[in-house]
Task: structure prediction
Amino acid sequence: MIALIIGSGGREHALAWKIAQAPNVKKVYVAPGNGGTASETKKIENIPLSDFNELAEFAKKNGVDLTIVGPELPLAQGIVDLFKEHNLKIFGPSKQAAQLESSKDFAKIFMTKHGIPTAKYETFTDITLANKYIEKNGVPIVIKADGLAAGKGVIVALTKEEAYQAVDSMLSQNKYGDAGARIVIEEFLDGEEASFIAICDGENVLPLASSQDHKRLQNNDLGPNTGGMGAYSPAPVVNKEIHEKIMNQIILPTMKGMKKDGIKFQGFLYAGVIIDNNCNIKTLEFNCRMGDPETQPILFRLKSNLFNILMAAESGNLSNIKAEWDDGYSITIVMAAHNYPNKPRLDDQIYNINNIDNDCYTFHAGTKKVGDKIFTSGGRVLGVTARAKSLQAAKDKVYKLTSSIEFSGAQYRNDIGQKALIRSSEK
Result:
């Protein structure tokens, strides 16, 4: 079997790494890949393609059995639709279905229509009306760019001045381009966040292990929003009761709602949820792909053949599929470039990317390989990952490995996993 993975981030490196482990997979192509996928075994090979038609042609010529789409942008642009027109097997939602992620307004209308719990909101294109809404509803309040903004188009405003500035930056200053030409303003929800990702075949759903992402740049959830600075799996906040609530109140109603609306949803369905002190849940947002960096700790715990699972999902045969998981914990620490998330510095050489043992792995994101050397090429550079039987042991191991890797201006959080440890100690 031959697989093709679309994308160049840490998520795609983790997908390639995991799929390459399948005994029935002889080749994994990654388009365009990164310095990590370029440094893998001969089974994994980067291809310098991004044009959809060229990728489809490549898949045909090279006998690709399944293409897996990593990032959100190709999904929003319709790569799945194009591949299916060419009778090529591809795992991911159609352009129409991907609106759950590519338009916050679409997602909010959908959730409201189908009774899926979410924050109260309104949508705006007019600055004056948006500011009046803020004035009326007060702070804290959340301002979101409607379209795709690489995980950075969300502002949690604690003062009215911050809220007005956020509105101005999107609607007037065009900070996020077309993605911010329309904005969603919604009530602030207090609680603990978790990431819940499921594999969907259009009818059936296979939930993956829970995880928790850390969006803020600095310790204690301070600083600007990022694409994600670290994650761990499982997330203790998602206990059996919460798991059932998420499935019954969010995931399954979403699948039924999409079907009712005449839209087949086949792909990864990611619900960002918030859980309050009374164990009530609400949906913060939907993504139509695996999260980054959540993919790394989740797949590091997956014992099953991921390629077989995705092939079954693509053909609509997920109903009898089960996933087997390592019963310990895994943690990923994102090492970011100097000045991330603003204008990250590039081209710093990276040293000492070595694993301690088989329970550690460093996934590449913003890297490139030049000769036998690795350099930074993006904001989020590496996803250092470790697993262990206990969360504390995983945390100790991953930070030991992270501290040994060096590049100029490297920055990372020191508290990934701390929330879960506190939660465990309180029981």
